[in-house]
Amino acid sequence: MSIEPTQVPNVLIVEDEMILRMRAVDIVEDAGFCPIEAINADEAISVLESRSDISLLLTDIQMPGSIDGLKLAHAVHERWPSIKIILVSGRVKPSEAERPANSRFFGKPLGVEQMITELKTMVGAGALQIVPTAGDWTLDGASDAARTSSSRSEQEASLSAENDSLRLLLEQAEIDARALIIQAGIDAEQRSAADKLQKLILGELHHRVKNTLAMVSAIASQSFRGAPSIGHGQKAMEGRLLALGRAHDLLMQVSWADASLTHTLSSATEPYDSQGGRRFHFNGPDIRITSVAVIALAMTFNELCTNTTKFGALSVPTGRVEISWAIDELKQRLRLVWTERGGPPVEPPTRRSFGTRMMGSLGQQLTGQVSLAYERGGFVYALDVPLGSIAAVA
Questions:
Q1: Which domain holds residue 73?
Q2: Mean predicted lDDT score pLDDT of the chain
Q3: In this structure, how many other beta carbons lie within 10 angstroms of the beta carbon of residue 222?
Q4: What is the CATH number of the domain that holds 348?
Q5: β-strand 288-289 against 259-260: which pairing, if any?
């Protein structure tokens, strides 16, 4: 894939979920614009104050930080009225009166074609042309863009149908819950309190389902986006969905509270440690980490494990991986290093894959830095983050 360099409008993307932010970047690029990323409203304001070339703000509503996305949208509209605004959410749907003037709202998961059309309508036709090359997508040895487009449309339709089915299941769950409360003989006052609790639980469940669907949609799209064939894309997607499932299983064990860093890493690497002896070696103090960090680390380590079993140390019987981490108490930072040893000579990749993007995105997600070193003796991945962005509050 080659990109013709031209001056294009900039779109500021504000999204705290790593994979969803990467998907939004892809949508903005496909629309023909240049994405600028921020993980929360505070970072977005800093970007806007430091530059004057942002044409549109695309922001999630639910985000950590001093203000949410809706308040950010109003602040941007007041200070920079020329900037167009698109709001997205999987939980709330603000009315037109609650949104800034001339802003638009979309529910998650995002409809890709609709989003691209809306971006072009609000900002312009776009000038960044993505030109497919012969190596972008091959099907039975030949480029087949039409079937790729059809495949993506089928994925979108399937995800939409799944979303509708889950919505109906949630509605039925609400009906069933009310019936159980009545059958239990709970009096009117207790029933009212139970109804409120039930609505809170179902609201949170609905949000998690919508958010997970959005993440699945993003994983599916990005897995097929740069795959050399449909088979490769399907295998990559399955691996990423399994990694996401393992992360959710881990969080369910602790009721979506804080999880162990050691347990998170061992859970992510265990499916790849199947040669009889232990090929992953851990060294570091165990700490409790947030649910956001659990999912981000699980997805990133899935990419590291996939790469090392295909091309790195674990592609040969003698290879091993050392994962060490330490806490700098004075600077209050955590540094984690993945080091491969005993594998074949390492060659730097010729293209920036989805996995490489995800590894870099983890550093931004946790307000830290990521470095990738393709040393001849073995690949080295290092993550350096503030302790407060990964460790759970005691």
A1: 2-131
A2: 78
A3: 24
A4: 3.30.565.10
A5: antiparallel
Q: Convert the pLDDT of each residue in 202-211 to its tens digit.
A: 666 666 666 6
Q: Which residues of 354-383 are buried (b: 16+ CB within 10 A; e: fewer)?
A: bbebbbbbbbbbbebebeeeeeeebbbbbb
- Whether residues 266 and 362 fall in one domain: yes
Do residues 116 and 27 touch, judged by C-beta distance below 8 A?
A: yes
Q: 394 and 254 share a domain? A: yes
Does 253 lie in the same domain as 200? no
How many angstroms separate the CA atoms of 130 and 74, rounded? 33
CB atoms within 10 A of CB 50: 7
Provide the pLDDT confidence category of residue 201 given band limits of 50, 70 and 90: low
Q: Do 124 and 155 fall into the same domain?
A: no
pLDDT of residue 3: 43
d(CA 348, CA 159): 36
What separation in angstroms does the CA of 222 have from each of 137, 138, 345?
A: 13, 16, 28
Q: Are residues 95 and 38 in the same domain?
A: yes
What sign does the CA torsion over 270, 276, 280, 284 have?
Answer: positive
Quote the pTM value: 0.63
DSSP-assigned states of every residue in 33-75? -EEEEESSHHHHHHHHHH-S-EEEEEEESS-SSSS-HHHHHHH
H helices of the chain, in order, are: 18-31, 41-50, 69-79, 112-123, 145-183, 188-225, 230-253, 261-269, 291-310, 354-365
Region 358-364: what's the mean pLDDT? 78
Calpha distance 189→196 (Å, rounded):
11
Radius of gyration for the chain, computed over Cα atoms and rounded to the nearest angstrom: 23
Q: What is residue 4's DSSP assignment? A: -
Q: Are residues 90 and 211 in the same domain?
A: no
CATH code of 126's domain:
3.40.50.2300
Number of domains composing the chain = 3
